[in-house]
């Protein structure tokens, strides 16, 4: 019997598979998803009495408390904040509004794979400028690519994922100044670690939008709280197409509590810095590894040989990291998230089992 014909996805989506680091084993040190490694229970931020004051029978309101906190921190008006169910939610809105059919997004590879994926889902084209490794994007390189491609959207990820390096603010703002009709998306998911941001430049560059997240330094990846900061000139375009009540009342309440906890953020930033330096030095001591310095909560490194086999060897040592070899420009690369000191000890010990140590100088 001939099986019935079924609806078919658009041609450009037929090769897509589920995004992510894959289903991680139940045991092992999780250093593969760039999450904050320490537990952050919801009960540490919100009491039972506060939960009881959240009425689940009502649709969410305008999140006045969270807007007040973040608008003061970011130096913008409350109505310049667009909230979403994780940063990928607000990023998709960006590509739906300013990308789509017949429009092009310019990416500087290697970079965050979801930018290309979301652009394609929205119906747009992707143009890749291959920067390579080490990842150094100059002003001249960026402007030359812009002149050649003439995109409707250009994306900068800083610190860049997966390379961890910063993109100089002058590079981004030079592009924004030279191409005022292009939307300049700056993904700052990891910017709290080095303490950098282009947010003050929004006043003079209304074509710049900046995405933020609670998933990294706020240790709340499970909360799914994403933020897009936009100029007032563009804010209404986002509100016009955004799904109503797209973020839950519980998320808003918890996010407001977490946003006020600046002491924990400062502690995490310092812990990440010291542990990242320690892991980086351990990587540099291994023969056959090229480690790339970074400013986020992960490190990218290139190896000789089979990345899948190396990742499997780490897993047998109880350490789960990310095989990045399928990402554009990351051939031969693995990425390790910065964990707790004990978890990083496990990773450093596993290095000695998976790779031969470098000979003494």
What topology does this entry show?
Blueprint: E1 29-30, H1 48-52, H2 64-74, E2 81-84, H3 87-98, E3 104-109, H4 113-121, E4 125-130, H5 139-149, E5 153-157, H6 169-178, E6 183-187, E7 208-213, E8 226-229, H7 232-241, H8 249-260, H9 262-284, E9 289-292, E10 298-303, H10 307-316, E11 319-320, E12 322-323, E13 333-337, H11 341-354
Parallel strand pairs: 1-11, 3-4, 3-5, 5-6, 6-7
Antiparallel strand pairs: 2-8, 7-8, 9-10, 10-13, 12-13
Helix pairs in contact: 2-8, 3-4, 5-6, 9-11
The secondary-structure element order is: EHHEHEHEHEHEEEHHHEEHEEEH
User: Quick one: how many beta strands?
Assistant: 13
Largest beta-sheet details:
7 strands, mixed
Strand order of the largest sheet: 2-8-7-6-5-3-4
Distance between the termini: 70 Å
Give unreliable regions as ranges.
none
What is the radius of gyration computed over CA atoms, rounded to a whole number of angstroms? Answer: 21 Å
Give the overall average pLDDT: 95
Shape: globular
What structural class do the secondary elements suggest?
Answer: alpha/beta
Strand content: 15-25%
Please give the share of residues in helix. Answer: 25-40%
Number of helical elements = 11
């Amino acid at each position: 019997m001939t099986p019935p014909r079924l609806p078919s996805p658009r041609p450009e989506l037929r090769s897509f598979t589920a995004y992510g680091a894959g289903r991680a084993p139940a045991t092992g040190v999780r250093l593969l998803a760039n999450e904050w490694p320490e537990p952050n229970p919801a009960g540490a931020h919100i009491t039972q009495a506060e939960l009881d004051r959240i009425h689940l029978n009502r649709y969410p309101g305008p999140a006045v408390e969270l807007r007040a906190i973040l608008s003061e921190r970011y130096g913008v008006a409350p109505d310049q904040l667009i909230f979403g169910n994780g940063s990928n939610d607000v990023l998709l809105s960006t590509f739906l509004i300013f990308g789509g059919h017949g429009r092009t997004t310019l990416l500087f590879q290697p970079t965050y794979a979801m930018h290309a994926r979301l652009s394609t889902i929205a119906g747009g084209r992707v143009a890749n400028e291959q920067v390579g490794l080490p990842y150094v994007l100059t002003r001249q390189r960026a402007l030359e690519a812009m002149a050649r491609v003439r995109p409707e959207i250009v994306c900068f990820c800083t610190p860049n994922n997966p390379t961890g390096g910063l993109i100089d603010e002058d590079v981004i703002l030079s592009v924004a100044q030279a191409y005022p009709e292009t939307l300049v998306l700056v993904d700052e998911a990891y910017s709290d670690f080095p303490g950098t941001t282009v947010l003050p430049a929004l006043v003079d560059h209304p074509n710049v939008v900046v995405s933020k997240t609670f998933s990294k330094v706020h240790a709340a990846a499970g909360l799914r709280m994403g933020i897009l900061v936009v100029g007032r000139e563009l804010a209404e375009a986002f509100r016009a197409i955004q799904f109503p009540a797209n973020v839950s009342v519980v998320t808003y309440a918890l996010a407001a509590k977490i946003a006020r906890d600046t002491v924990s953020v400062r502690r995490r930033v310092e812990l990440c810095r010291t542990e990242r330096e320690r892991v980086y030095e351990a990587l540099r001591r291994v023969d056959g590894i090229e480690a790339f310095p970074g400013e986020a909560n992960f490190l990218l490194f290139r190896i000789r040989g089979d990345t899948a086999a190396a990742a499997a060897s780490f897993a047998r040592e109880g350490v789960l990291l990310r095989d990045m070899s399928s990402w554009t420009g990351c051939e031969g690369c693995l990425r390790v998230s910065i964990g707790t000191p004990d978890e990083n000890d496990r990773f450093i010990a596993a290095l000695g089992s998976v790779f031969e140590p470098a000979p003494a100088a």
